[in-house]
Amino acid sequence: MHADSGNHDSSAGAGTAAGRSGDPGAFDVLVLGGAGVDTIVHVPELPLPYADSYMIDGGIRARAGQTGDFVALGLAALGLDVHHLDFLGDDPEGDLVRALHRDKGIALTTVPQPAGTKRAVNLVGPDGRRLSLYDNSRGRPDDRFPADTLRALAAASRHAHVSITHPCAEALPVLREAGVGISTDLHNWDGENPYHEAFAREADVVFVSVAALADPEATMRRIAERGRAEVVVATAGAKGAQLLADGEITHVPAAVPPGPVVDSNGAGDAFAAAFLFGRLSGEPPLRCAGFGALAGAYACTVPATQSAALPRDALLARAAASGR
């Protein structure tokens, strides 16, 4: 794994795939999809009662960072060599995403998106909970990643983390053909929506929130039985997580946040990044989940208007101190 900095921002038609070291096969993780911009609004309470207007003392701010961006950021902070591939618009929001990757030294390949860069509005309550409003007009049904670029990047990577944003489902067969390990985060899947099925079926590691699941354990087992998943993790915020590995479900306690909880945005992405760091380092699933809990807790202490991730040395030190 390579920890040196650098950035590769290219058009998807270039068909090149080399890590920061310049060597083919130098990427630890290809992150697919999930690039965008969130507008953060701190509200006095959630749900927000109807009113003609609210005065927002904390300001209303746009910052780069959606699920794929945050997973890439978390992986890079842990010393992994990451390449992010997604559609971006030629717009101010796309410029924010490009700047984030450049500033953090994360390689980025973009596909032009005439519909514009993905956007969302996040309402954040005083307790750190959030309500996300996603603009699903920033894509077209016939969007597809260029096959040659996708194959080249997959061939140069050890693992691929696939966001559930369109058109990532269509990329799954190419990734599987390339023989790369696959993970995905189903987020607040209800266990029934067919859109998520392809992701749940094709991934080796599946993350899902319990937020909309009537029976998390049954859903976890169904994911493993119907698909390729070796590990399924159901996250439950302050209640910890459930880990399904080798047919056994184990409760993973939540970690104590290292500071005041100000925002839960990005906690699941931080959990996934730290889990994958452990997996790619050869750690057993339970220890990987422990890493995830520590990184997720740290993410809850980072204001939504900022982009920061737990560094590798800090994660390992906290893991040693907590016995995880």
UniProtKB/TrEMBL annotation:
Q: Out of the domains of life, which is the source?
A: Bacteria
Where do transmembrane segments lie in this chain? none
Per the record's keyword annotation, is Transferase included, yes or no? yes
Known Pfam families for this protein?
A: PfkB
Domain Carbohydrate kinase PfkB, which positions? 202-308
Compositionally biased intervals (Low complexity) = 10-20
Query: What keywords appear on the UniProt entry?
Result: Kinase, Transferase
Spans annotated as Disordered? 1-20
Q: Which PANTHER family does the UniProt entry name for this protein?
A: RIBOKINASE, SUGAR KINASE
Q: What is this protein called?
A: Carbohydrate kinase PfkB domain-containing protein
Upper classification of the organism: Bacteria, Bacillati, Actinomycetota, Actinomycetes, Kitasatosporales
